[in-house]
Amino acid sequence: MSAIRLLVIGADAAGMSAAHQALRTAGPGLAVTVLEATGDTSYSACGIPYWIAGDVPGGDALVARTAEQHRAAGIDLRFGATATAIDRQADTVTYQDADGEQVLGYDELVIATGASAVVRDWAVDPGTGRRYAGVAPVKTLADGAAWLDLLAGLPGSGGRVVVAGGGYIGVEMAEAARRRGHEVTVITRTRVMSSLDPDLSARVEAGMRAAGVRVVTGSPVVRLDVAGGRVRGVYTAEGERHPADLVVLALGVTPNTGFLDLDKLPSGPGGGLRPEPDGSLADGIWAAGDCCEARHRLTGAWTYLPLGTHANKQGRIVGTNLVTPGTLRFGGVLGTAITRFAAGPTYLEIARTGLNEHEAAAAGIEVAALVTEGSTASGYMSEADPIAVKLLASPSDHRLVGAQIVGGRGAGKRIDTVATSLWHGATVDDLAWSDLSYAPPFSTAWEIVQIAARRLAERL
Amino acid sequence: MSAIRLLVIGADAAGMSAAHQALRTAGPGLAVTVLEATGDTSYSACGIPYWIAGDVPGGDALVARTAEQHRAAGIDLRFGATATAIDRQADTVTYQDADGEQVLGYDELVIATGASAVVRDWAVDPGTGRRYAGVAPVKTLADGAAWLDLLAGLPGSGGRVVVAGGGYIGVEMAEAARRRGHEVTVITRTRVMSSLDPDLSARVEAGMRAAGVRVVTGSPVVRLDVAGGRVRGVYTAEGERHPADLVVLALGVTPNTGFLDLDKLPSGPGGGLRPEPDGSLADGIWAAGDCCEARHRLTGAWTYLPLGTHANKQGRIVGTNLVTPGTLRFGGVLGTAITRFAAGPTYLEIARTGLNEHEAAAAGIEVAALVTEGSTASGYMSEADPIAVKLLASPSDHRLVGAQIVGGRGAGKRIDTVATSLWHGATVDDLAWSDLSYAPPFSTAWEIVQIAARRLAERL
After folding, report:
1. Is the predicted pLDDT of residue A423 greater than 90, yes or no?
2. Is A292 labeled as catalytic in the residue annotation?
3. Which chain A residues touch B430 with a CB distance below 8 Å?
4. Please, what's the largest Cα pairwise distance for chain B?
5. What CATH number corresponds to the domain at position A426?
6. Per residue in A214-234, pLDDT tens?
7. Percent of chain B clearing pLDDT 90 (strictly above)
8. In chain A, what residues touch B64 (CB-CB under 8 Å)?
9. A379 domain residue, yes or no
10. Neighbours of A239 (CB within 10 A)
11. Interface confidence: ipTM more than 0.90
12. CA distance linking residue B440 with residue B443, whole number of Å
C-alpha cells in the first residue's frame, strides 16, 4: 500500500501545525507536501512590530521552525509555489513555481493560505500597479525588513510616520515608531482599538497622546499626497492633510482565498472559508488558520478573527482529524486578544474577550456593562498600577458576555480569567466569588476582576 | 421597634466586611458593635513582610480602613476588648477591657476572631512565659513594627536571621531579610513551599540558594541556644546548630477560638469553626475568616486555609445573609495562593491551586501529573522568562485536579486561569483548547498553561 498523500497549501502556523501533527499521528504511512508562495515559513507575524521597534535582534528570531527543520521531519516543503486552482474531480492542485505550472495530486488537502494585509486603492500608483514609495503594510517578514530600511532612511529623531488604522497593528506600529523617536500620527475611521468600547478606547487614546502620538479619530485616510512616486502626506475623509514621510498600512487583513471557487466551498461574504468544527471543508479538503472564519462561541455566528492562536489550534486539529477522524473539535472563538502600548511615559496593557457593547447589540443580546477602576497590586506596593476592567453581562441570567481591560503591568493577562469564565458559560456571580490568587505584589485582597464582577452582579 | 443588635467579635477583614455589609444591607435598623482585642483594624497582614523589606512606607499604609472611618460609618468599634465567653442561652458575650469584665447582649453574633501565629514551646522562656529576645512571629502590625526594630539593631549588611518555617511567610521573610543584606537561613520540617510538590518546591529552593539564602530541609527547629534571655542559635531535630541573631517564627497560624465552648459548636480538631455555606454556625451565630475551616470545593472535605481572600468574601456573605437570609453562599476553597521570592539575582513567582500530589492521594483521588517548561513571553522578547507549569488531572475523566506554577514575571497570576477552570470542573482538554490571549510580550502563541494542559491530556 502506498503512502497517503497529504498536500498542504500554506507553510505558516496553521499549515505546518497540520503537517507536523498529521505526521506525528500517522507516522511514515503519510507523505506530506507543503506548497508555500513565499520563501518564509512558521514565523511570528505578531512579532514584526517588536522587531521594527528594536526589541528583536533579527527576522530570523521570529522563525519558530526553519525550512530545514521542516524538511528534516520528512516534509516536502516547496517554496515559491503559488497555488492557482483546485480540481476537486481529479483531486489535484495546480500551482505556479519558477519552472512554470505544476499539478500535484492529493488524498487529503489542507488549505492554510492565511491572509494578506489590506492595501487600499489610494496606496497604489495606478500607473505602475505598485504601492507608492514610503507606503507599506506590516504582515510578512519581507514587510518587516522593508520597514527597517524605510525607518533607517528617516532622520535620527525625526521623520513623520502616519499610521493608517488604529487596531492592534496600528497601535503596535505607533509604539515602534514613537520609541524610535519619530513623529507619529494614527488616523482611524472610528477610534483606536475599536474592538474596545469607546470608554476603554478613550483610555488607550489618552495614553498614546501622553506619549506624544497624534491621534485622529472618526475619519479614515482616503487619499495620499504624492510627489515623484513617493508619499508626502495623507488626506482624511474630512479633507484634512497630514504630512507623512512614511505611511503604515494597518487596515486589517483579508483571507487568501481568491484562487478558490468560493461558490462551491463553504465560505463567508468576505471570502473566509467556513470549515466544520473538525476542520473539514469538503470531502478530503480541510481548512485552518487566517483563511478561515470561525464560529463565535457565544453567538454561534461566523466571524473573521484571524489570530495566531486559532491558526495553531486549528492546524493541530486538522492534522489530527485527517488521520484519525473525529478526534478533536474546535470549540469556537471568544475574540480574546491582548496587546500593549508602551512608549515615553505610557505603559498600557490592553485586552478584551467576548462581545463588546456594539457586538452584543448586533447579536441581539441585551447587556449591562460597568467599568470598575482599581489597582494591579495592593495600593501600598510599588507594583500597583491603575487598571480599568469593563465587564458585560446579561441582566436576565447574569451570564458574562464580555470583558475589556486597560491598565498597567499585569493588567492584560487577567483577561484569561474572564475568557475562561466565558468559555464555561459562567455568571458574574461565579466569577465574583471564585477562589483567585492574592498577594500584595500581584493584586488587591479582592482581585480587581472579582470586584468588577461583584459590582456588576449587584447592579443586575 | 428597636434596632437589631449585631455584635461582631474581631475587627479585621472578616469582621469589618460583615459589619459594613450588614449596615449597607439593613440600613439604620441595625446597631453594630465590634469588639477587638488589639488596637488595630482592617490591616493587610500579607503586606507586613513587604513593610519589613522596605517596600511600604509605614504600617499605616497597610490599614485599609481606619477606626475613625469605621466609626464614621456608624459602627461602635471597641478596642482592647477581649471576648472571653459566649452565653448562648442569654445571647450575651462577656469581654474584658481596661475597665474590667463587660457583658453585651446581641440579636446576631459574628465570630471573626482570626488566627494567631503559632509559637512553639522552644521559643518561650519558661521562667518569664515570654518569647526569648530576638525571637518573634510576623502576624500583627505590632509584630511588623517589632521586626523593624529588631533588624535595625543588626549590623548594616550582617547579622544572622534564621527563619523557622518555609511556607509563604517564611519565604517572604527570607526575601525581606536577604534584601536588607542579612545572612539568612530557612529551616523547614519538610521543604520550602511545601504546598507545592517536591519537584516545584526544588525550583523555589534553587532560586533562594542562588540569592544566597541557606536552606535546611527535612529537619525542623526543635530548640534554641539562648544566652542571657537572648537567642544566639537554633538546633534542628538532627542536632545541627545554626547561629542566629534573630529567629522568625513562620510556623503557621492557629484559629483564635480558645474562648469558645468548641464542644457545642461545629468545629474541627484544630479548633477551626465550621460554618454552613451561608456563614451560619448556630442559631443567631455566624462565623467568618481565619477562625474558620472551609469546605474544599474539589473534595468537599473541611480544610483550614486561612487567607485574606476567603475572610473578605466570607465576611461579606455573612453580612448579607444575617440581614437577608439565604442570599449568598460560599462556594468553597480551591487552595489558590500566590507569592514570590525576589532577592539578588532571583525573581520567582510562585502559585498553586487545587490539590497537589500528596493532597490528592490523601483524598483518594488518582491523578496524573506533568511539569511543562516554557516561557512567559515569546522567546525573542526581552520579557521572556522561564516558567514551569505543573498540572494534575484525573486519568479517568480528564478533570483538572490542581496546578502549580514557578516562574518569572507574569508567571504567577496565570494560576487564576487554572483556578477558574477548576472552579467550573473543567478538563485539561477544555483548558488546552479554550481561547486565551496572546501577544509576544505576554505569552507564546500557544499559551504555556495550554501547552501544559494539552501535553497532560495527551498522556492520560
Report:
1. yes
2. no
3. 423-424
4. 70
5. 3.30.390.30
6. 999 999 999 999 999 999 999
7. 98
8. 445
9. yes
10. 9
11. yes
12. 6
